[in-house]
């Protein structure tokens, strides 16, 4: 049973979740598992504590239970049904089998995930937390540090698999990029945007000083150097997407004017209007990285699906019959072959998990453009280094006064 938990930051959870590099694995694997032989069907049963084997490599019950609990981000107060638990554990088991297949593929290529790589990735996560808060978050989430590190290692393994094994098999000719751009030219228009600065900090006098420096033409980095407690963020956003508070503060400003310094949840803040950026059609030279990203994502999905299909045709995977006591009944009518179906549930995603399904669409061009508006020195469509505004439009939640995004937790 999953214990109550709080929602952690995405970077913390990134060490717990499956890699979101392709969208085909869990449902595809669950479908193929329907045709796999159960342990005990003419073979010796799996050892006690083993729920599956992948080419004779065991998947332990304790790992399955721990990853299931870690993947569940909340406890509703109602005990899940047997069917729900079967679906949840089936999806987690599918992911663990995928991770084992990936680990074995890396081993065949003599590609290792080093302790140094894991330590570096962990350090990046810890850097988002004040001293002692990382360990405190683990305790509050009922997460074992060694297990969290093993999930982080599996994620790094998947990233290396994608980058070093799958990516070299894919080519994107210039002609293909040109053809796609010609067919989707209308998708590569930057809409009219408003450009402004958000100046925030815990001290009103410091924010007022930073506001004056910004009005005088000082660069954000220079302002922050002068007033270390203040953050200055440049934002380019469509007016129809501005939070209500931001829109209200900017409504009465002319270019190079700033709103009064006002107190918010995180301290004090002011908005400085830089001007309007007109609508613009991105030419191919600027749209190229966006087109390439769309095509690459699609081809990576296809390559991943082909690889997984080939692996599942040759891999020896056994699943314990004790995991699903009514497996044969569940397997009927689900594409099972005869009486050897496992009845593994289809890849239903769980709280805190990023599962996938065959045929899921790759990110579309406008979605990439909408991720964040271009900033100086960045490619069009690149993601802004600005936290998303809170749902209530309170910018102070998005831009903490001390320049460090606070870790919010909700029961």
Structure description:
The chain is of the alpha+beta class and 411 residues long. The chain is built from 15 helices and nine strands. A four-stranded antiparallel beta sheet has the order 5-4-7-6. Strands 2-1-9 form a three-stranded antiparallel beta sheet. The longest helix has 31 residues, at 284-314. The model is unreliable at 1-26, 37-41 and 327-411 (pLDDT under 50).
Features:
411 residues, alpha+beta, 4-stranded antiparallel β-sheet, 3-stranded antiparallel β-sheet, 15 helices, 9 strands, 43% helix, 11% strand, extended, disordered N terminus, disordered C terminus
Helix content: 40-55%
Overall geometry comes to extended
The total of helices stands at 15
The tally of strands reads: 9
In the predicted model, the low-confidence regions spanning at least 5 consecutive residues are: 1-26, 37-41, 327-411
Q: What order do the helices and strands follow?
A: HHEEHHHHHHEEHHEHEEEHEHHH
Instruction: Please report which band the strand proportion falls in: under 5%, 5-15%, 15-25%, 25-35%, 35-45% or over 45%.
Output: 5-15%
State the distance separating the first and last CA atoms.
Answer: 17 Å
Placed side by side, the strands forming the largest sheet appear as 5-4-7-6
Sketch the major β-sheet.
4 strands, antiparallel
Secondary-structure-based class equals alpha+beta
